[in-house]
Structures are given as structure tokens and as C-alpha cells.
Design goal:
Two copies of one chain form a homodimer. Chain A has helices spanning about 5-15, 150-155, 195-205, 220-235, 250-255, 290-310, and strands at about 20-25, 35-40, 50, 55, 65-70, 85-90, 100-105, 105-110, 115, 125, 140, 160-165, 170-175, 180, 190, 210-215, 235-240, 260-265, 270, 275-280, 285-290, 320-325, 330, 335-345, 345-350, 365-370, 375-380, 385-390. Chain A is of the alpha/beta class and about 400 residues long. Chain A folds into four domains: about 5-20 and about 165-315, MoaB/Mog-like domain (Molybdenum Cofactor Biosythetic Enzyme, Chain A); about 20-40 and about 135-165, Molybdopterin biosynthesis moea protein, domain 2 (Alpha-Beta Complex); about 50-125, Molybdopterin biosynthesis moeA protein, domain 3, CATH 2.170.190.11; about 320-390, Beta Barrel (Beta-clip). In chain A, the strands form eight sheets. Chain A has a six-stranded mixed sheet with strand order 7-4-6-5-9-8, with no helix packed on it. In chain A, strands 16-13-17-21-20-18 form a six-stranded mixed sheet, sandwiched between helices. Chain A has a five-stranded mixed β-barrel with strand order 22-25-24-26-28. In chain A, a hairpin with a 2-residue loop joins strand 20 (about 275-280) and strand 21. The two termini of chain A are about 30 Å apart. The relative contact order of chain A is 0.13. Chains A and B meet through helix 2, strand 15, helix 3 and helix 6 of A and helix 2, strand 15, helix 3 and helix 6 of B.
Chain lengths: ~400, ~400
């Protein structure tokens, strides 16, 4: 049995980045960039007006004849005399012979002439070519998280494809003779299967969509066969149930039989003590406790970390926050606890009813409060670590 | 021109909840529940062992003959005598005549008999029927955000469908003769269109997937026609560009022509001053500034709020955090500022280069720092409001 911090280190070390793939920019939200990107163009690609107004060549003159119009998207580069100006709009091309734009609000127009009332400095309101970024300059560094802003930036440079780290394909393996699919009749001694549905949406919440669910009865042969198949075809295997020490818990045996290396089994924590983590080749395996609330706690604390690591996230992206606890708390168990809590911007409250079998409290919690095994008493307003869970 | 806080209030008041629809539980992640849910069953549906061990009828006896097995998913309710026990596993049915389970670690087994070494109290390790939740008891209140835990909870009660507030269908209307689709040749005076791609992924980031993009040239007739179509078919219309006061900015005129009520136009802020917000029937309309960084700022500050409101979120779900600012900041503009920043768990740093035309900084920011128009100086370590942006 190991401590929480050891478990997290082992997971972190053993969850390797996925291979790289090329992806369309408009589909890259939430991926991690696997290359450094340099600009293929100057942006803006031409000298551009940053205002609606009049473009002219700066001199002592304050009165101009209007001889043309430059609207965004049009292009004209005619010669314009010193005493001439053109009507110009935001984003429009500034002809080479002009250097300054006066805002329309600072002019007085009289048919085809304008008088400047408030004169700008020379070169004002003209964005130079490449002012935002020059060709070959750095756009985004390798390992950047792709956000809407990053996608907008890439798109405005005309970049349509980038290399990112793949997201893992995940198998969910649900074990248990007692499980009945929701919508079916609930026979005596049976319960509705909920872990596969819950884990699937939790995975979707992390941005993972290649997920397949398998059900096996509590039977060693079937468990071995299903796991063998999953280990060869998926990057991450999540097994739900069948991992405690009861006679009918075949999962650990079936994993070892299939050549999975045990990296840890059981953590000094509550809930979620019987958690198995292992690896075969590059596939990582979690065998989660069967009861829903324990399984979900382990998902947020451990599986989440592993998934993010495989997707190329580094620690800076991992979600841990500090909050002042509203309710003093005593931990006399000698185990690390993860308590369902509700946090706001300042503090966190321990919710009532922490039983590991129950999702009731979990469904209204927004964080798990971490109480290390060696912390006996946490006083009111002391800072604690919270793992956000939605 | 109005202030930021007024704009937020107007948006909040005018963004109405979408109609209700029935949805499969496994597809309901991120929706807001539009009904209160009561449990259709007792959970657990039967008296259940919470341990691997032996079930017996509590008495002065400490030695028992093992006469059967109850495994999770099986059901047997035979009569068992006082000096008899059965092998039982976690989650398994406890026959009516038995009341206590002893952990296997606290027994000594000798072929078909066991001796209890450490005797539990009566009724220990047996979960009573309905211990987690009883039939007809409250499962989830109306207006709860559907999280993985909520989905797990509903699924374990056999609930397969729930009523939620719909998510809005969103039209993105991009205006501008200067815009060229990425991947095409960039003619003189043209730039790559990026706002539609960026707004689309930003919407996806909020969980909205019914999005359609329209492009119109700077032409009043086409703009009117496209907007008319969008106003009749979508719940939210986002127009990008064409909203400043230049001669070629037709959007406002086209909106008013189509019967959109102007709720505000222009905010005393930077970036994003020329922001239009209006409404026709239940469709809300934002006309965003054309430049990408301003458009995205307005999205996170204003559109995000409106979308969440339509999806049934209330203020408790809205994302605003407080951080200590690392860099003192002076605001002499008289305008409210939204500065691109990078925050960690404790503090926030104002990033360099805040120009509204540039997405460079935005792409590496994770928050917008709000500097109200009437705050002239913010000292180092003073608390500021940050809007997280990814």
C-alpha cells in the first residue's frame, strides 16, 4: 500500500505522451501543440488603416481634395498628390504614397474636400506591414494548449493544419454479475449498471471521444479474453469493479495473466483504497473500485492526471486550487481522505454524507478536498487543496 | 454609451431560458436540469453486504457452519439456522434471516466452518434497503448542472431520460469584403477570415454544437437578407464586423430594418467599444467588433453570459475569480479595460502587448483582468477580478 503522493508520481512517470498527428486547425480545440509554429505571412499583410477616416501624406497642409476611396478588401495603389487624400476605412489598404490617417471625427467635410480640425501626428492610425507578426516569426510554441484564441491566431495567418498530440483511445471494462442495463427490469439481487455511463461522460468532459465499453461477467476466462483484446487495441483501459480481494474478483489475476506490469495496487486513502495501476507496452490500465462514488473519485484524482499527461499537458495545466475550509475537520483514520466539497471563489465547505457508496453528495459537489493521511486536524479557515470536479 | 456593469445587467435580463426538452441521460453532460427528479426505486434495492466476508444472524455464537454462498448478482433467500452462516461478497444480497456480516479478515476458516476472531457489532456491514436513497426521495433538484456524478447517480437509479433546458442554436454571420478563406490565395488588400472559426470553437467550448456560419459582403441588401434568415431560424445571432460607424458598416442598419430592438450599442471599454446587443422576439443578437481580439474579448465577457443564461445557468455557475495582481497598473483612459493576463492559483500577471488587433497575446493568456473605468491605480498585490478564458 502506498501514499497518495507516491501514486501520483508513479502515474505521472508512466503516462507517456501519445504520438503526434496532423489535424485541421478548426478541430484542434483542447489539443496540445506538438510543434513550434512560425508565421507563413506578414500580418497584417499590407499597410492597413486602423480607423475610419482619411488617408493623406503628412505635411504642413490641412486641407485636401478627396480623390478616391479605400475600403477594406479593395486594393488600389494610385499616385496621390500632396494636397489630395482618400476616404479610408478600418482594415483597408493604405496606398504606398500615403502615411497617415486622420479619424473622420477630426475632420470637416465639404463635398469633395476635407479640412483637418485636430491633426494627428505623422504615421498615426496606419498599421505597418507585419506589425502584429512578421513572416517566420514565432506564432505558438510547442506544448501550447490550443484555445479559441490560438485557433483564431492560426486561422488569421492562413494556417489550416497543425501537429498535435493525439488523444488516447479508451476502453471501459465493466465487471459484475449483479449489473443490469438501465431501462431493463431489475431482477432480485441486481443493481443498475452506472459506472460505464458515468466514466464515459467523465472522459468526454476531458475532451476524449474515442471510447468503447465492454461488459464481462465475473468469470476469469471471459475477463482475461476481454482484457487481452482491450490491451492490444486501446491506449488506456479503465476497469470498473472486480479488483478487491473477494473470491470472485478476477480482474487483477486477468491483468497479470495478460502481461500487465503492476505499478501499484491499493492506496492509503478513503475512498478508493483498492485502486490498481499498471502498464503493458504503452497501454496504461486503471482498475477502479466498483462502487460509483469511489470510482469517480479515483477518476478525478488519478485517471484525469494520466489522461492529461498522455494528451501532452504538463503540470502547469493541472487543476488544483487552494481554498479556506469553512468547517474544521479531524482526520483520525491515518488515511488520506478525499471529501466531497463545494467551493466558491474564497472558501470550501465539506458536504454532509461522505459515504463512498453514494453518489448523492457527489452530484452536488464541485470539488474534492484533499486531507493528507498525516494531517490530523484542519482548523476553520486553514487552507486546503481542492480538486475541481466539473 | 454605457458602462460594463450596465451592459452585463441588460444582457442578463434579456437572455431567457431556452425551452425544455427530453434527453437521454448519457447525452446530458453540461445541460441544466429542468425538472426535479425523485427516485423510482430504493437504492440499494435490497439489503446488501458492504464487505467480502460471512453473513450470519447475530447472537452469542462465534462458530458457524458455512451452508451457502451469496455472490453479487445472485439471489437466494433460504432459511439459515442460528449456527449457520454463508460466504458473502460485497454488493451481494443478504438473506432476510441474517443481519450481520463479518469481514473475512476477522475470521478463521476451517473447511466448512468459521470461527469469528474479531466480532463485529450486530447489523454491521449490511446496507439496509434504500440506505442511499428511498423510492420517491429527492434525487436532483431542478436547475442542477448535470455533471458526470449526476449522470452516474441517475443511471444507478435506472433513470434513462430527463428534461433539460435546450442549448441555443447559434448563427455566426461574418461580414467584410476583405476576408479570404484560409487555404485560398491571399489577394492584395485581403486578410484571412478567422473570426468564424474562432467563434465556432469558442461556442463549442461552452458546449454548443448547433452552429452555422454565414458570410456576407459589405452590401446592405445581402446583409439584410442574411440577417432576416438568421433571426427567424436561430436563438442567438453573432455578427462579426460591420458595426462601427464607417460608411460601409451596414450591420446595425440591417438589424434595425429587420425589427431587432437595440438594447445597447457601444460600451465604455477597451477593447470592444462598438458592441451591439439587441433582441427580436426571443432571438438575441450580438454584433461584435471585427478585429479578432476584440471580438473574442466580447465573447468571453458578454456572449458567454448570455449563452449560459439561455442554457439555464444561474449566477452561481458564472466564472469570475479574484487574484492578486503582480504588476501595478494605471488606468488613465476613463474606460473599463480588459487586459490579457495569466493567472495561477494565487496571482495574475498582466501580459505584454495588449493591442486589440492582436491575438498573439490572447493565445497565451488564460484570463481577462477587469479594470473598471473608475479605478485609476491598482497597486501590486491588490485583488482584481479575472475572467478565466479557457
Amino acid at each position: 500500500m502506498i501514499q497518495v503522493s507516491q501514486a501520483l508520481s508513479i502515474i505521472s512517470e508512466n503516462s507517456c505522451k501519445m504520438p503526434i498527428k496532423k489535424i485541421k486547425v478548426h478541430k484542434s480545440l483542447g489539443f496540445i501543440l506538438a510543434e513550434t509554429i512560425y508565421s507563413p505571412i506578414d500580418m497584417p499583410p499590407f499597410r492597413q488603416s486602423s480607423m475610419d477616416g482619411y488617408a493623406f501624406s503628412f505635411s504642413e497642409l490641412n486641407q485636401f481634395d478627396i480623390v478616391g476611396v479605400s475600403q477594406a478588401g479593395n486594393f488600389s495603389n494610385e499616385q496621390i498628390k500632396k494636397n489630395q487624400a482618400i476616404r479610408i476605412f478600418t482594415g483597408a489598404y493604405v496606398p504606398d504614397c500615403l502615411d497617415t490617417v486622420v479619424m473622420q471625427e477630426h475632420t470637416q467635410r465639404n463635398e469633395q474636400t476635407i479640412t483637418i480640425i485636430k491633426k494627428p501626428n505623422a504615421l498615426t492610425n496606419v498599421r505597418s506591414k507585419g506589425e502584429q507578426i512578421k513572416k517566420e516569426e514565432l506564432v505558438l510554441e510547442k506544448d501550447t494548449l490550443i484555445t479559441p484564441a490560438a485557433i483564431g491566431f492560426l486561422a488569421c495567418l492562413g494556417i489550416t493544419e497543425i501537429n498535435v498530440y493525439k488523444k488516447p483511445k479508451v476502453a471501459i471494462v465493466v465487471t459484475g454479475n449483479e449489473l443490469v442495463k438501465a431501462g431493463k427490469k431489475l431482477g432480485k439481487g441486481k443493481i443498475f449498471e452506472s459506472n460505464s455511463v458515468m466514466l464515459k461522460v467523465a472522459l468526454q468532459g476531458v475532451g476524449i471521444n474515442k471510447i468503447k465499453t465492454f461488459s464481462v461477467k465475473d468469470n476469469l476466462k471471459n475477463t482475461k479474453k476481454t482484457l487481452q483484446n482491450c490491451l492490444s487495441k486501446f491506449d488506456v483501459v479503465l476497469v470498473s469493479g472486480g479488483i478487491s480481494v473477494g473470491d470472485y474478483d478476477f480482474v487483477k489475476e486477468a491483468l497479470l495473466y495478460n502481461g500487465v506490469e503492476e505499478l501499484f495496487y491499493t492506496i492509503n486513502q478513503k475512498p478508493g483504497k483498492p485502486l490498481f495501476f499498471g502498464k503493458k507496452d504503452k497501454t496504461i490500465v486503471f482498475a477502479l473500485p466498483g462502487n460509483p462514488a469511489s470510482a469517480l473519485s479515483c477518476f478525478y484524482i488519478y485517471v484525469h492526471l494520466a489522461l492529461k499527461k498522455t494528451m501532452g499537458f504538463d503540470s502547469v495545466h493541472l487543476n488544483k486550487i487552494k481554498r479556506k475550509i469553512k468547517t474544521p475537520f479531524q482526520n483520525t483514520t491515518g488515511k488520506s481522505l478525499f471529501l466531497k466539497g463545494f467551493y466558491n471563489d474564497e472558501s470550501v465547505t465539506v458536504l454532509e454524507s461522505q459515504s463512498s457508496a453514494m453518489l448523492n453528495t457527489f452530484a452536488t459537489a464541485n470539488g474534492l478536498i484533499y486531507m493528507p493521511y498525516n494531517t490530523e486536524l484542519v482548523a476553520e479557515n486553514e487552507e486546503v487543496t481542492v480538486i475541481p470536479i466539473n
